[in-house]
DNA sequence: TTGTAGGCGTTATCAA
DNA sequence: TTGATAACGCCTACAA
């Protein structure tokens, strides 16, 4: 049925171990043997069974990547970036979608644990304890979140918030709302905190609304609250909320961005095309993903000869594009 | 380090095989033993090693899902649907993104082959021969494409095209363009063929443009050709092309949809929000994904007792929503 | 009902 | 340089 190392061995007239060597370490075997083996392997269409190899070596060549929602353009972008980089490092990526659910998050990690060498975790919801526990069993790199001493790659949310505020202030906004995303989201906390600190220090008024679900519907739901708060600008936890918001605000007869400006984090490919215009704040997913992979690969390497420990360089959050009344390009 | 079946056996004071039974077939073991084992397992936090199990049983409990672009909303929708259904059938899903590249497609399939029980393949580009070969090694279900006698789940493209044309004709369009997607796309061929047949039989004029890449840029690139063709309606291979098209057409001072109607297949979550309006044709991804999983699971089951062979019921393509001048809801 | 033994495909160790 | 042999963790006859 399926061709094994022994089939190749038989055809090449050598032992299984020689086949193994001829394929893995061609220089540790006589040239003639190597050729015979390689030809036999090719002829039979032999592919080493990675599962069996994993059992024997303890290394699978796979990286697990856990994201809350693979249909969210931000995360699918991360998946792409991770795959590209992982491939360059000779790793395969097994992406897993937790559907924003903590329970499946943990479950998925367990079923995947023995099939990967390490995890890249976008787990904004899971409890610190769970994550620490996972990190004890298997190498883990956290994305966009800090938990204890677990290696992580994060955006510089404070700086991103600063850029947004600078932008809005330049447009003469003084009373600004923040629509909070999921209460348990780490990034949400960071952004809210940064906003509070910054607006306070600049003498701006900050109105906090939410928490709402990070969806179009969430944005629709919070619109009336915002209109009643008489702010001139709104910063939304993400683009989807911002879109719902704009839709509902407009339906109420309020003009965007003349009467009220809307800014959303993350980026949906077509968000720019929306009318009325949405100011989008985007994160450099490509570099984000690459860095995360590099860090995890480092950690895996260090495991061989333990002792060293690394820390990720924090990343810039970049306001990439704006369609606000007074367009301005940040980077 | 990692807790194995033997650790549990020791703690429970039984043999490894009893642990195995107590966990897999609790009824084939004495109640007392079962309890002792289960408690020991819980206490140690034992999780069976799926890799080892796979080696022994030949079944991994994983389904491979290959898609050309996980960032494309159509495919991420399929991934979601597949995961939901697979989970109900006690399977995990390993999604793989081929980046629209035939070579990685094949490569990915090989590295995944021993880690899954079967494949769900969205491989619009790969050659028939490659796919047949894969299908010989391991159970395969093709999505949105027919290759020989490989089980497959497809949309009824002809019917979908009929709905679109009916819609446009009701709006008095007589001269209609089709913007073809990738030349090697099976679905593209099907749609073009259906369009030719149908328009001919209805006495409509069909202008074919393209092929273009299935992206925003592809749409921009083809706009001038269409304007020169003096059609009143355009059907695009997908939403991304349609968006680029609208953008460029509008930039040329032509109004959408007053001067020209644009229809796009697939659906991007925010496509409805675009202005000028885009008529979207959406496919029922949820049911699509579910059906594919069911079919593959069937095939896997039949493998045990081979002999039977199944065929997927073709699926309806549904025009779900339109923002055209004379809105009309199909379903 | 339970335990023992063998095997799944590979790699690593150790002799030869 | 090569070939037995053991081990990875689990499952399943088969025997007790």
From TrEMBL, chains A, B:
Residues 304-331 are annotated as: Disordered. Keywords: DNA-binding, Transcription, Transcription regulation. Transmembrane segments: none annotated. Pfam families: LacI, Peripla_BP_3. Residues 3-57 form the HTH lacI-type domain. GO terms for molecular function: DNA binding. Signal peptide: none annotated. PANTHER family: LACI-RELATED TRANSCRIPTIONAL REPRESSOR, TRANSCRIPTIONAL REGULATORY PROTEIN. This is LacI family DNA-binding transcriptional regulator. It comes from Amycolatopsis melonis.
